[in-house]
Amino acid sequence: MKKKNALCILAGAGPGDLGLVTLRTREAIERADVVVYDYLVNPAMLDWARAEAELIYVGKKAGAHTLPQGDINALLVAKSQEGKTVVRLKGGDPFVFGRGGEEAEDLAKAGVPFEIVPGVTSAVAAPAYAGIPVTHRDFASQLTLLTGHEDPLKPESALDWAQLAKTPGTLVFLMGIERLAEITKTLIEHGKDASTPVALVRWGTRGQQETLTGTLLSIGGLARERGFSAPAVTVIGGVVGLREKLRWFDNRPLWGKRVVVTRTRKQAGELSGKLRELGADVLEIPAIEIQPPNDLRAFAELVRDAHMYEWVVFTSPNGVEAFFEMFYRIYGDAREFGGGRIAAIGPATARKVAEYRFKVELQPEQAVAEEVVKAFDAEMTVENTRILVVRPEVSRDVIANELTKKGAIVDEAIAYRTVPATEDRSGVLARLKEEGADIVAFASSSAVEAFLDLKLPLPADVKYASIGPVTSQTMRRLGLKVAAEAKTHDIEGLVKAIKGL
After folding, report:
1. What CATH number does domain 258-287+421-499 carry, 3.30.1330.30, 3.40.50.10090, 1.10.1060.10, 3.30.70.20?
2. Residue 103 to residue 425: CA distance in whole angstroms
3. How is domain 124-246 classified at the CATH fold level?
4. Hey, what long-range contacts does 109-114 have (CB within 8 A, 24 or more apart)?
5. CA neighbor of 304 nearest in space, from 279, 321, 340, 328
6. b/e per residue, 392-404, with b = 16+ CB within 10 A?
7. What is the DSSP string of 35-76?
8. What is the predicted pLDDT for the residue at 85?
9. Residue 152's pLDDT is what?
10. Closest of 303, 254, 268 to residue 499, by C-alpha
11. Which residue, among 326, 328, 319, has the nearest Cα to 414 in the 3D structure?
12. SS3 of 388, please?
């Protein structure tokens, strides 16, 4: 029996690039009780789901189906009828050779309310990221989309190969790599010019995208030599000849580099986004998680009394966020902060302060604790000055110790603690073990320690990049060679350092 709140959302997950996921699909994932997802879905988007959401993998690869389609349909109906919001994530668009229509039919038959969220199809997106427009006034005014993987139970092909062979414009086959030799041979036999340009685009729009070009006659042999495998889109037509002129995605500075990002799950997005813009294949491994301090009451009391201090020193963006979240739980008015001045250890911390509409009045040129102390020396005599230092539970206490030696009255507000991340919802650890990495980026000492605790196998020639000297010191202490260190100790600096490798 259908429950009142039952709903199934059939959502297109796009071709792989997270930037091509629609806002509506992301909203659906964020509210879902159950997420049922395919092999072609970028697993990174599973991190958008609530911690308590149930994630169910029903992926299908050639010769390896987790569940038959009928069982998937039944699963969607059953979970929805429990009164849950179920999101069925399908690679690309659910209605473009995605069998979404069959799933919707069964939902309708069972009386389950459903919603369709269209997605960007790889039939268009993958060629575009390879520099191939599927239509062009000089080459193709017609686009034909086909499946290369017809229902095996059909007595004969539903495709009119003779008609396809003389169809003008661009032919795009989805899921056709396993039958590539048969497809190209059949087209030639029915009169298609054997010299017609062909492109295969594997994992289109992602950092691991591969493109292989040839002709209708040669592409099968080239694919075999290269070991070119699914998932891939096959593009046939004159537009393929535009690739060398229009390629834009796979000639970026970090193209072909697989970079591991080791920030917290919440923080990884900014660094990952900038690296992806440079063409990197990014693996987000949240080595640490941010949790409240063990003595939350003591922290709350110091935040409550912040107006009693002449200076508040923030040593990290996480500390800023924890402080102001607590501050606004206690007070409803920013003026309760009082007349104290604010110091920040570096630009990233200063930017986080600015998000709360407060002004940073002291910031050293280098984002290290010793430089904060020097900045105070240059600004004023701190003797008898009341200073509150907001920091994580385990960190260097240089600022508090040195300012105390100079006569300041210093209290430390322990804002949060870092713990090793235990979840791998997106399966990224398995991918790292299987595919390796070229570069590992560290943005904190705690991330270095937590990452090494994972004991992951890495290639001998992997390079390590550091956000600054303190993190580099930890890396060297633990036996890692620092290949690059950011000159400015923030995300922008770390990206520049990685770019130089």
Report:
1. 3.40.50.10090
2. 25
3. 3.30.950
4. 110/2, 110/77, 110/80, 110/81, 111/2, 112/2, 112/6, 112/7, 112/8, 112/76, 112/77, 112/80, 112/81, 113/6, 113/7, 113/8, 114/7, 114/8, 114/9, 114/10, 114/80
5. 328
6. bbebeebbbebbe
7. EEE-TTS-GGGGGGS-TT-EEEE--EETTEESS-HHHHHHHH
8. 97
9. 44
10. 254
11. 319
12. strand
Tens-place pLDDT, residues 87-134: 999 999 999 998 999 999 999 999 999 999 999 999 999 999 999 999
CATH class of domain segment(s) 7-119: alpha beta
Q: Give the residue carrying structure tokens 């390079």.
A: 463
C-beta atoms surrounding 53 within 10 Å: 19
Q: Which residues contact 475 (CB under 8 A, 6 or more apart)?
A: 442, 448, 464, 466, 481, 482
Low-confidence stretches of the chain (pLDDT < 50) are: 1, 152-153
d(CA 81, CA 86): 10
343: tokens are 């110091």
Per-residue pLDDT tens over the stretch 95-105: 999 899 999 99
Residues in a beta bridge with 466: 442, 485
Per-residue confidence (pLDDT) for residue 485, from 0 to 100: 96
Q: Which residue has the tokens 């969220």?
A: 117
Fold equal for 124-246 and 258-287+421-499: no
Domain regions of the chain by residue span: 7-119, 124-246, 258-287+421-499, 291-420
Active site residues per annotation: 38, 60, 175
Q: Which pLDDT score, from 0 to 100, does residue 153 have?
A: 46
Backbone torsion region of residue 266, taken as left when φ is above 0, otherwise alpha when ψ lies between -120 and 50, otherwise beta: alpha
DSSP E strands, 140-207? 143-147, 170-174, 197-202
Cα distances from 452 to residues 124, 350, 467, in angstroms, run 41, 30, 17
Of residues 110, 90, 107, 113, the one with CA closest to residue 174: 90
Based on its alpha-carbon atoms, the radius of gyration of the chain, rounded to whole angstroms, reads 27
For residue 452, how many C-alpha atoms fall within 13 Å in the half-sphere facing its CB?
14
Q: How far is Cα 381 from Cα 398, in angstroms, rounded to an integer?
A: 18
Return the CATH number of the domain spanning residue range 291-420: 3.40.50.10090
pLDDT of residue 62: 57
Instruction: Render 225-264 in DSSP notation, one character per residue.
Output: HHT--SSEEEEESGGGGGHHHH--STTSTTTT-EEEE-S-
Q: Are 489 and 317 in contact (CB under 8 A)?
A: no
pLDDT at residue 464 in the model: 97
Which three-class secondary structure state does DSSP give residue 7?
A: strand
Question: What is d(CA 250, CA 126) in angstroms, rounded to the nearest whole number?
Answer: 12
Instruction: Please return the burial class of 383, using the count of CB atoms within 10 Å of its CB with bins 0-12, 13-18 and 19+.
Output: exposed
Please give the Cα distance from 139 to 157 (Å, whole number). 28
Which of these, 299, 209, 298, 301, lies nearest to 255 by C-alpha position? 209
The answer to whether residues 82 and 76 touch, using CB atoms and an 8 Å cutoff, is no
